[in-house]
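Hey, weird one. I pasted the DNA polymerase III subunit delta' sequence into the form twice and got a warning about non-standard characters only the second time. First submission, copied straight from the form history:
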Amino acid sequence: MSDLLLPWFLTQWQRLCAQHQADRLPHALLLSGPAGVGKGRFAQALANLLLCHEPTAAGPCGHCHSCELRIAGHHPDLVRISPEAEGKPIKVDQVRLLIDHLHSTAQQGGYRVVIMEPAEALNTSSANALLKILEEPGQNTLLILVCHQPGQLMPTIRSRCQRIDFTTPGVEQAVAWLVDTLALESDRAEQLLRLSHGAPLRAQRLYEGDVLEQRKKLLTGLADLLRGRAAVTDLALQFGKFDLLQCLDWLNSLLSDIIRIQLAGVSEPVVNTDMTRMLQAVARQAGSAKIFALADRIQEERVSLMMRQNPNRQLLLERLLLQWSDLAR
Ligand SMILES: [Zn+2]
């Protein structure tokens, strides 16, 4: 079994392999589900299997000519298409190049696989261009669209693909995998998973990047601000270097915990269990109107951040931090 393949996707994998053995694979697959659960790895595992000339029950052989080309990283029959920069669309030129490539190059005697990720980055013109390939992809060609938000895809694209749904795995399985993969204590794995909305690969990235360090600095700064030990402008300057959407996400999750403590009368936060004391204190002191107002503001900033190219990060953070510090007054 390929180590790309995650244990929680075994059913989907076996079903596709059976389809492949019966020579009944479609031209296009839509792998759909939340980000960070492993759809991209699933796509790669499938591509590896289809490209191999001598696959075994355990997966690709790893030593045929085709496997060698793939492992060396330049297999002509494996094409990956993604936006040129994160958050940008997949351009129509990229799809046109793909069409030319599919028409002009000879296959290496096996399957040809295109992995497009994330497919929701197709804009109207690139999606229209892609429709041409979806109608007539050619022999033994498989398009794999990896999509975190299928609702954003054109219906005509969706309807031409066989859709496979992926969900977040059960907590127990995900924690076991994180413990095993990252050599972690299970408490720590559980916390990472909660912070990642149950998506194990997102939890892995959180652990491996300096993102957790950023979260720690953010939380420390927020606590200092409540105690009057830090200045809004200094903190805004510091946080301005962080991943802003991620910061908003964390702030949002703090507020959700506070709201839960206030409304449900419980003492423990659900997500930010490492910040229990601060969250309890805010829940005691702050009026719910202020908390909901800040939650709304965060939501607005999230939306505008995704639409605008260059927001004034300093100003945005200063406004949010001021509103946060006001919670304890
Ligand atoms: Zn092989």
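That's the output from the first submission. The warning seems to come from a hidden character in my clipboard, not from the data itself. Residues 244-264 form the longest helix (21 residues).
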